[in-house]
Every structure is written in C-alpha cells, then in structure tokens.
Amino acid sequence: MATDNSVYRLLPAGVVAPRSAEDVAILLKVLEEGPFRHLSITARGGGTGTNGQSLNTGIIVDFRRYMNRIVKFDFAGQWVEVEPGIVLDDLNERLAGTGLFFAPNTSTANRCTIGGMVSTDASGKGSRVYGKTSDNVLGLEMMLGGGRRLDSDRTDAGRSFLDAVAAACDEGLPGLLERLPRLSRRFTGYDVERARPSHDRIEWWRLPIGAEGTLGLVTRVRLKLLRKPSRHRLLLLAFDRFSDVLSATSALLRADPTAIEVIDDWVQQRAAKAGLLDDLPKQIRGDTDHHRVIAFVEFSGDDDVGLGAKDDACRGIAAGLQGYKASYSTTDPGQIAQLWSIRSACVGLLGAVEGSRKPISFVEDCVVPPENLAAFVADFTALLASHGVPFGIYGHADVGCLHTRPALDIHSERDRALYKEISDAVFQLATRHGGIFWGEHGKGIRGEYLEAFVGEDAYRAFRRIKAAFDPHNRFNPAKLVTLGETHLTVGGTTMRPAPPAAADAFSRAYACNGNAVCLNYDAKAAMCPSFKISGDVKHSPKGRAEAITSWHSALGRGDATPAMEEAVRDALDGCLGCKACASGCPTHIDIPELKSAFLSRYHSTRPRPLADRMTMFLEAAAPALARYRSLVRPLSNSSLLRVASLKSGIVAPPKVSAGLSSFGLGALSSGDASRRRWNDKTVFLVQDAFTALFDVPAVAATARGLELMGYEPVVIEALAGGKAAHVKGDRPRFMAQAKRLAAELRRLEATGRPLIGTDPSQVHFIRHDYPRIGLDDLPKIWSVEEFLASQLRGGRPFRNAAAGGTSATIFLHCTEQAMRPGTRADWEAVFAAIDIKVTVAQTGCCGMAGTFGHERRHQEWSKSLFSLSWASRVASASKVCATGFSCRCQVERCSPRTAIHPMRLLADAFENDPD
Ligand SMILES: Cc1cc2nc3c(=O)[nH]c(=O)nc-3n(C[C@H](O)[C@H](O)[C@H](O)COP(=O)(O)OP(=O)(O)OC[C@H]3O[C@@H](n4cnc5c(N)ncnc54)[C@H](O)[C@@H]3O)c2cc1C
To answer: Does the Cβ of 53 fall within 6 Å of ligand 1?
Structure first.
C-alpha cells in the first residue's frame, strides 16, 4: 500500500478494508476522535496509479478487497450501480450476458477498480467514441468527514454546502475556461464546468470525478452502460517511420475509426525480439534490419458492410499519405485479440528493460490535438535526446494521447535531477502545443502543476470547493488542491529504495514497479492464487516484493528487527510456487525464487519444521524407496504413518503406487541408458522423484501412449531434482541435487534421443531454475504434449484413434500455464490430430501445488482454491484428465472424481480402437 506504479513510496500509518458503506461511515466517525484526528484518509482501489495518486501517510482505505459488489442493475434504463472496489473486467464479465457494457477501457482493466477510474477519470482505447469515465457516470454516493453521506439521488446535501460549492464554481469557471484547451480528453478534477450546467443548478457529484479522493470517499457509483458492438474489424497500417504514423492520424480520422493506436520503433523492435510480431504478414512487419511502424485502426459496430466501407475508406486515405507501405485487415475475433495483445504488451516490454535506467511514468500521458501530435512528439523526443535519455512511446493517437516513458535511474542523483527537469519541461511543452499534461492517468504528485495550469483564479475556487467538502483537509491531502499545507512535489517526494548489487539474492525484489499485473481478480487466470483467495495484497507478488525490499533495505541500514523478518516469512508462506509471477509480471518478479533465498537465510539461525525436513527427505529417498516398493507400500498406507504425518503437520499424504513392473515396464539408470545404442524411435522418459514413487500409473500411461503412437519409450530411473529443497529454501541441498540430475541429463543427451519429463512442475523447474544456478547448458527436457505437437508440426503423421468415441476435459498445471502458454494449443493439436475431442479447461491453480495442499496450515486456502475455478468444471466434465501429479491428488481428495493423465486417455483410445 506504500507504492503504486510510480517511483514514489509513502508509508501509511494503517490500512482499513471496509465491507460496506456503513463500515466506511463508522471508520470516518472513529477517525474524528482525538487520537486519530491528525491522520489523513486516502482511498485506494487497485493501486495502479502511475503518479502516487493513492499514496499517503495516514490511513489507506482499501475498497478493492471487499466493496466490490453490483448493487443494482437496470437493463431497460441501461445503468448499473456498483460499489467502488469492483474491478473493471469483473464488472464487464458479470454484464456479459446482457449485451451491455461499461465502455471506458484501460490497459489495467483486469485490476483497476471503478472507484479508481471515477476518481482519475480514466479512459483508454475507444475513448474518442465512448468518452472518458466522467462521460459515463450518472451519479454517486460519497462520504465526507465524520461519516456524513452525500447521495446524488437525494436532495439533502444541505443548502449552505450547495451554495458554497456553487459560488466557488462560479468564481473559478471563467478563469478555467480561458485556460482550457478544447480537447476530447477534457479536463477533470475539479470539473467546475460540468458541476454548474446553468446558473440555477449545481451538480456537486461531478466534482469528485477526477478529484483523486481529495474531496471524500466514493462509496457507490451509478454507471451508464452501452450496447456492446457485435462486429469488429482491425486494420493494420504499416508506415516507414513513426513520424509518418503520427502525421497520418488526422487524415485517418476521416474514416471514423473507433480507435487508432500506435507503438514507436523502439517498442516495436522489442516486440519483434520477444517474437510478438512473428505471425504478422511480412508486408506489415518489414525486414529484420528495417522494421515498419504499425498503426492499429479498429472499427466497431453491428453492420459488417458499413465497417467494411470504413475500412476501405481508411486504406484509401492511407495509400495517399507519406511513408505508407502496406495494410492488413482482419475480422477474425481470435486474430484481433491476438493482434491487440501486441499493443497491450508494450508496458510490459518497457518494464522488462535491463540495466539501471528503467522506463518510468511521470510524463506519460500528455494529450495534444491530433493535428499537433507530430510536432509535439518531435519537440518531446528532441528534449529527451538532448539529455541522452532513451524512451519508448505508444498510445492512443486518435485522441492525441501518447504514453512516453523515459528511461531513468531514479537512484542516481543526476537522473533524479533530470526527472524534475524533464517533468517541468514537458509540462511547458504540452501546454505550448495546446494540450494538457495529464490526459489519462490523473495527476497524483503531478498535481503540483495544477495551479500553473488552471491559473490563480480557478485554483482559488478549487480551494473553496475542497474546503466545502473537506474543511479539515483530511482526504488525500498535499495533492491537487492544498489548504495551506505544502504540496507533495515531483522533486521532493520520497522514492522507492535503491536496489543492492545485482549479485544480491534479493535484488530482483526491487524490480517490482507496481504495475499490479499480479493483482488479477480473475479466478480462471493463472496469476497469483494466494492473492486471489485472500484478496490481501500482502499475499501477492507485489506485496511480497514490497515486504522483502522493506526488510532488506532495513537490513542494509542496520535497523531490521526479528518482527520484520517474521512478517516477511508470513507473507511468503502462502506462496504456492506456481511461477505465474516469474512469467506474467512484466518485470519478472520471481517470488518462489526469492522465497527460496529468504527461507535459506531464515533457517540458517532457526530449526526447520519437521514437515519440511520430511518433504525434503522424501524427495531424496524417493528413488531408493521406489526400488523397495513392495516393502514400503504397505507402510505408506498404514495408519501409523498417517498419524505420524498428521503430527508433523502433513495432511492426507499420497500413497505409494504400484510399480512399473505392474505395467510390464522396467527402468534403466541413465548410465546404462547412455551406454546402449538406440534407434530413431527411442524416447527417454525422465521420471521425477515424486511421480516415480506415488504415481507410476501416469508414467506408464505416458509410456504406453507414446508406444501406441509408434515410439519406443525407455523409462529412466528417478533421481531427486532438488524441487523440495528449492521450495523449502535448503539451497546447498537443492544445488547438489540439481547438479547430479544435470549430469545425468547430459549423459543421456549424448545418445541424441529426446528426453521427456513426466510431470509439468519438474519440466519447468529444470528449465527455469537450473539456469539460475549456472546449469544453463542442459539438453532440452520436453513435456510430452510439447514433444508430440512438435513432431506433428514436423510432418509426422498420427493415425486416428477410436474416432469420435471419446470426449474429455484436460486440466493444466498452473506452472505450465504460466511458463508455457502454448501448452493448451499443443494438447488441442495432439488430440485433434488423432480425432479425439478434448476441451482444455481455463482454470487457475487447483490449490495443491506440490506439498502446499498437504500442509495443515494451508488447508483452508488449498480447498477454497479448488472450489474457485476447478470444482464446477471437474463436476461437469465427462472425463477428467489432469497433467500434474499434484492436481490429480487434489481432484481425488476434493471431489468424488478421479483424474487421469491425458496420455491415459490417448492410450485407452488407441487400445479400444478395433484397428
Ligand atoms: C500499466 C498501466 C497502464 C495503464 N493504462 C491506463 C489506461 O489505459 N487508461 C487510464 O485511464 N489509466 C491507465 N493507467 C492508470 C490507472 O490504471 C488508472 O488511473 C486507474 O483508473 C486507477 O484505478 P485504481 O483502481 O488502480 O485506482 P488507484 O490507483 O488505487 O487510485 C487512483 C485514485 O483514485 C482514488 N480512489 C480510488 N477509489 C476511490 C474511492 N472509492 N473514493 C475516492 N477516491 C478513490 C485514490 O485515492 C487515488 O487518488 C494505467 C496504469 C498502469 C500501471
């Protein structure tokens, strides 16, 4: 709660998450009491602000956590009333069946809240047609100091309050209008123009829109809904240079598109490097040494013919413009979504820039009239070039709003001075080009420039408005409009702590830039199961990174306390290790890796819990135990062992399964395997320790499936890979085990035959975590579907199996969803090729994740996670297949169903095939 997507860091005194408007009223009453009167009150939604909007030192009111319900919905009237903490995508998903939607769109739609959008007057793609949030709000309820409630539906706001606000609007309006450029991205916060539609009317509720919580706490909002267009068309226009695209914008607008979005050469090159442009037609991409620059032009509506005509008109206009090279148009919804994902990836691409200078937000949303765009960008980029500052640009060209993120090292004195200098200069530049400094993201600390922009008279009126709503200056003070206190300033506000040297195990935690991608609300998305189930930022990658940097920088200063260390352990304990953060976060904050490093340090002075020692022992001993299975198996099922497990905090441990011999299979050591000669059908199945002990049926199914598809699988004896030691933070043990397994893999590599893993978590652990300890020259270890799909793409024919006879749902392991998004398509391709109908379920984590779900202290979260996105899909599936061993265990214990490995489905289909 101390950070957002800006460079600033303000530590609050406390955080309160109300469950209802009544709670908010109680909170505000309590905060009137003597001991709390000095505390400021600042609302927080998703915390995705780019300029410290939701940061302050007093009490933070977290609306996102509980106040996220739909209160009323009126289909005929096309409106919905919501609590402010509801996330934009969540709202639109809940409205999906109605054909209506809330139109203002942000790139942060899966994590920003309606309260935050209202308070910053957010907008994004499509705003030229749909307007900003302020154009789509019909009314609201808010609370002022002491819990006083104001409701736009009621007439009891009080005469003196209304008179004071009306008089202030009248005073400020003429001066403001004199200064304001007439842009589609109009000025809000405080919008005295709309609040005073005529001399006898005052619409006070227009004022908190865009006011960034400086007037009070919004507790309910009525939103206008629009009919969702049923047809979309995306036209890509390739130009020679970025300046050509910018100059083209005004002319292209004549074709009346819903949006024109652009990315500059720098961003485009990064996108190309990341492989995002690979699927684009060559005429759009250009050559490797000369990329073309793309404008994304979208047309939306319900009339195909009309949209086609607009598309044609747009191409015709483009063809006559300077630098125009080529066009490509599509109406395929899947391809449109995929192409837009290139544009959406921009912030991430910039966030992932290596080195100490990082692209940061502080001058990132200037708006100028589209006809001035090219000239403004030329001046802006010249300014940055004169300081030798690299930058990336992307944004909404149709409304003249470009996002420019200069790359600076805010921890160097020189760059901090530049930060302020560039900020001042860009404010002047935007104003000079007839534009506005804060076109989309709100003001936050940049509210420092408000008085200079609106002029003395309007600012004096703003002060009177602030005093009428918030006479004691409690709400988000020192921002936007001050009442005598010093304004927080761009150059003077505390910034995030400087990272230690890159070699420090905790340095990566400092890379978190608060973009909040990890605060994803969607139960079906892989990103951060522990945040999803707790709703508590502390249990998100952002919260964990924040906890680590707070403790670690205190350590550097010499004032870290044992309590801080316990707090960090507490924050990390709920991490399930899915790695969605390592892959999905633009800055690749790898919490499982940081947790491993932290626990290693933590347990260097404290004993390890028995359960952790048992888990690590089990992995190390699994290969030997598997060999003496007939002796171990009865013991593993004995009630004595179950009681002992329970005593150590382990719940429902898995049972030792039947061995390979029961399936007519044997295993070779890697040494033996490497000494023999193999043919070109041989594939090695590299067993992981846990599957080899507890789930040999899955190994056998994989072997059988491969065999039936014409391969000759050879099962390799299991060896501990160090997964448990990594999770529990025993680094020396992890490294020793990883080195041994790496040596065996290299030995197998010498045979030239493919190596296929038996569990997704093992495959991705070896691929991702081994290189981090220097084991980066290993042979590829395939997952089975990845291997088969690549064979298919290579032209290998697959014969049909029991055509049309089987249908099933495949559930993926969260780690493979996170680390290899292609997994889904590969399973689909493999089963389609053999004519078996499968659906790959879109789910989050099942809640088991290795040992997590077996640990007593995690039972509630583990089971709730299963209920969140798995339970109903499992219940309705005709056949349940799960790729992960732990996922199969979780299905077994949380539902009456049994999950099989997808290769069992495949093998059964072939075996039942009369051919
Ligand atoms: C990568 C990235 C991309 C972005 N893209 C866009 C974009 O396309 N378009 C866009 O407009 N913005 C964009 N933003 C900025 C940001 O997402 C928006 O400003 C968003 O509306 C903020 O919503 P939030 O819920 O995160 O609010 P927060 O950041 O939590 O808060 C924003 C402000 O609203 C106030 N507030 C929140 N809730 C209430 C309440 N209930 N009552 C009173 N005040 C309240 C807070 O005090 C704060 O001042 C982007 C940000 C990032 C990091």
So the answer is: yes
